[in-house]
Amino acid sequence: MENIQLLVDSFWPMFKAGLLISVPLMLVSFVVGLVLAFVLALMRMSKIAPFKAIAWFVVWVIRGTPLLVQIYVIYFGLPSVGLVLDPIPSAILALVISQGAYNSEVIRAALGSIPKQFEACRALGLNKLQTMAQVVIPQAALVAVPSLGNSFISLLKDTSLVSSITVAEILMTAKSIIAVKFQPLLLYCEAALVYLIFSTVLTQLQGMLEKKLGKHLVDTRV
């Protein structure tokens, strides 16, 4: 009975931390990371050698090193060169760079899967920039949605790593309660349940979005 009461009392602080910290952190990092990913993807597809090399190097380094190490480098390492960031900005920066590197490959593949339609669009009076913005990118976005959706959901779980730099998200909240209540098994399992609840909601939303966009994708291919 005492354990049940402990779980009831600790659920809301963890869930609240998810709503106020983990989810906003995920949303900001994903949106900004998507912008970075698009830039890196275009650089990788560019015919300008230095751009391709820089983008390849960034993706190679970020995809080849653990996210936790990247978080430590930003939070604990950058102060040694005079750049001191608070925990939340450090967390956002690390997650944005990670998302940018991984999702750039998704976007690059999606853009590459769309047939080049510049000749047809030129006949309609569209220049290359207009063709990319109005024709190629919208079609590529439909192709990329499933992979980006999976990345979005995984990002929620990745936010647990920023508890290592004292960001008060779900896992950090669980650790704080454990330090007082001394029930690690129960409370870590409850933290896992909270992550599972958020992930399940996001998975359902992703499915609805894919179903809706799938109709548009079929229409564009008819």
Helicity range of the residues?
over 70%
- N- to C-terminal separation? 61 Å
Task: Compute the CA-based radius of gyration.
Answer: 21 Å
| Tally of DSSP β-strands | 0
Helix/strand class = mainly alpha
Structure description:
- With 222 residues, the protein is mainly α.
- It has helices spanning 2-45, 49-63, 67-77, 87-113, 118-123, 128-158, 170-181, 184-221.
- Helix 1 (2-45) runs parallel beside helix 8, helix 6 (128-158) packs antiparallel against helix 8 (184-221) and helix 7 packs antiparallel against helix 8.
Distinctive features:
222 residues; mainly alpha; 8 helices; 0% strand
Please outline the helices and strands.
Blueprint: H1 2-45, H2 49-63, H3 67-77, H4 87-113, H5 118-123, H6 128-158, H7 170-181, H8 184-221
In short:
This protein is an all-alpha fold. 83% of the residues lie in helices and 0% in strands. The protein starts with a helix and ends with a helix.
